[in-house]
Hints:
This protein has twelve helices and two strands. α1 runs antiparallel to α2 (28-41) and α10 (275-284) crosses α11 (291-299). The model is unreliable at 22-26 (pLDDT under 50). 69% of the residues lie in helices and 3% in strands. The protein is mostly helical. Strands 1-2 form a two-stranded antiparallel sheet. It has helices at 7-17, 28-41, 47-69, 72-110, 136-177, 191-218, 224-249, 255-262, 267-270, 275-284, 291-299, 320-344, and strands at 113-119, 128-132.
Amino acid sequence: MCVPRSTSVHIQRVRDAAANVSGGTPCGQVRDRVRVLFRENRHTTSVVQATKQLRQGHKWLDAFRSAKAGNTNLQAVLDRYDRVLAVRREERLWKERIHRVFREEASVRTRRIHKGSFIRQSLYNKLLPRIIPQPEHIGGMIRRRRKARDRRLGVKSELRGWIDDLKRECRFELAAVGPAHHGREGEYYGNALGEWLQPLQDKLKITDDALSRDIKRFQEPYSPEMLEAARRARQRKVANKTREKEREVRGLYSKSTIKRMRQGPPAHVLAKMTLEQRKLYRIALGPSEGGYAAAVKRKLGMKLRKPDLWKLEGGRAENLAMLELKENEIMAENERRQCKDAEGIVP
């Protein structure tokens, strides 16, 4: 069997032959599989690997041609292989969807939420938005600046001490030399004093500039963009809480609702409560404002968001006629069924 020399030409022939191999029925999965293999192996440079791939491709080409010519056995094999590839592709798609959902859930758990409040500005930070969870680099930045300021204050105090020591040494040397110091250069007076003080003063100026930047940071005005972002965050928070309350009214409890319902009174209050009071307290923790829960809350003196909601237990006034009609129909149907069941009973 001869082996084609051109990989791209041979794979192109195999891809074209796989387009219609099963009695006029196209095998789309087989064709896509051949296309993928062509893209994966088109850059093969190894002679051994290229020869192996070409022999396999030539074998597939013969099978495709035989199936296209009417070989029922190969047609059945290719149909089955097409279905296997379809199942594999479906499994791969579902795995990708599941992984995508997991990634989205992980991103939701770790996404940063702007609370609408701020970290007040200080010597170590400007006005910053309060974010949950707070980025680690913000806390690290504040800690580094706090340590740097303490270190600079220590350096400043040490430099001032050295400068004072040099000035005292200059005065001491002048007093020791007396009037004879005129026209002479001493170790610490005259031009020598400036040479001693210059590097210390330069270092002191750098330290004072860094400390003044801390004060400037504390006095930095508020950014309009940050205030606008905080305003939008507070609006989103109110909207989220409103939707949460609406879901609670419909009976859909969130984790925060369940956590609030499981909370108990303080220990010193719980110790003095009777069993009946504990029962009423647990009922009052629920979000419901109708029926028995509303009666318990009104009994405990709790404020209801909708004080007149409990009055609608029997229905709205404009719907009473319709409700009575429905009730009569239901009662009539129940009586009819009871009579039918009684007639079916053999005495």
